[in-house]
Amino acid sequence: MPPSYAAAVSLVLVLGGCGAGLREHVRERRALGFPADCGQGPYDVETRAEGARWGEGVVLVACVPRPVRGWAELWIDEQRATSGPFGRSFRTRSGAVEAGPAQNARCLASPLHGAEVGGSAVGDERDGGVAPSDVTDVDGETVADVPVLVPLDVAVRDPDSACDDHGLHRVEVLRVALTARADEPHAFPPGTRLRVRIWSQEPNDWSGAFLAFYRVVVVPDDEEQWRERLERERDAERRASERDERRRLACAQRPEDAGCREANAPRTDRPAGASAQTRPASAPPPPRAERRPPRPSANAEWIPGHWRWNGETWIWLRGFWRVPESDLTAGLTTRAPEPPPPVRSETPPSVPPVAGAVWIAGHWQWSGSGWIWVEGSWRLPPRLGLRWRPDQWRLAGDVAVFLPGGWH
User: Fold this and answer.
1) Which of 75, 189, 260, 323 has its Cβ near the most Cβ atoms within 10 Å?
2) pLDDT tens digits for range 284-298
3) At a CB cut-off of 8 Å and minimum separation 6, what does 78 contact?
4) Number of domain units in the chain
C-alpha cells in the first residue's frame, strides 16, 4: 500500500460543505449481528474496493438500544490506516445525545463473584481457561466464542436512517473515504482489501443491537471545481514540503537554533513519570475457548470471559456462572444425591498474574451424572479489603446442597 494512504485516510472527509463538495453513493450494504450478547471483539467487516475514479470509502453504523464504547480501525490491505473511538454520543430521532459510559454491567463480574484471572496474552494455554483433560472426572462443556459477525436479513437503506427504521439509536462507528489525488486514476486500485475492525477494552452489551455496513463511492458535485481544488491542495503540499526541506537544511547548519532544538528533541506519547499505557495500542486477542463447569443453579447465567488491559499487556478474565440472588433465596442451587468426594489438594502458583489477585481454591460440582472438579483460580475482588467465602456443600437430609462462594 502506498505510504500516502495512511496519511490521507486519517482525514475523515465531510461529504458536502463549502465549495466543490462530494456526494456518496452506496455500492454495498450489509446488516450484521453479534455472535453473543456480551463481547469485546475484535470483530472484522471486510470488502473489496472497485477502483472508483474520485474516491471510495466505508461507513459502519451500530444500531443499539443502549450506550456502547469502543475503538474502530480501518485496514487497507495489511496496513492499519486510521483508528479512533466510537460511542461518545449517539443519535436518536430527536438529534445527537451525549452517551455516557457503556451500559455493560450484565457482561462484567458482579460484587458476588469478582473477576477470575486466567493468565496473560503471552501465557500458555493452561492459563487460558481450557481445563486439561486430567483435571475433571467428567468432561465439562467446552465453548469457543469465536467473534465472527453473523449476516442478518435486515433492511438497512442508508447510514442515516438504518437505525431509525428499527427504533434504535445510531452510533457512527466509522465513516471514512479516501479521494484520488489530481494525478491519480483512482483512490484504491480495484480489488484492494478494505477491512474495518472494532473492539473494546471491556465487553459491550450487544443484546438487541446490530451493525449496518456500507461501501460507498464519492462523486464531486462539480468535477471541474473538484479538479481545481485538488490542484490547489497539491500545490500547497509541494510548498509545505519545500519549506520543510529548507528548514531541515538550515537546522543541519545551525542545530543550536531554538526552533531546531525543539524539532530535534526526542518525542514520546507517554506522560512524564508514566510506566504503562492507559489505553492499549491494538485490539485484544480473540477470545479464548472456555470449558464451562456445570450450572450451579437453576437460573444461573454464563458470563463469557474477556480480555482486560492491565497497563502493559492483555490479561484474560475467565468466564463464570452468575447465580441470581433469587436462586439463593428460593433454594434453587444444585442438589446432588450424595456428598462430594474429598477436596483435592492444590498448590497455587507462587506469583499472581496481576496485582491484587486472590487465589480461590477449587471445589467439586455435580454435573447431573457425576462429580466434576472445578480447579482453583486467581480472582480479582470487586474492591479492596474483601475476603472470599469458599464454595461449599451442605447436607440437607438425604441430598447435598451447593452454596456458591462470594466476597464479603
Assistant:
1) 323
2) 988 888 888 999 999
3) 1, 193
4) 1
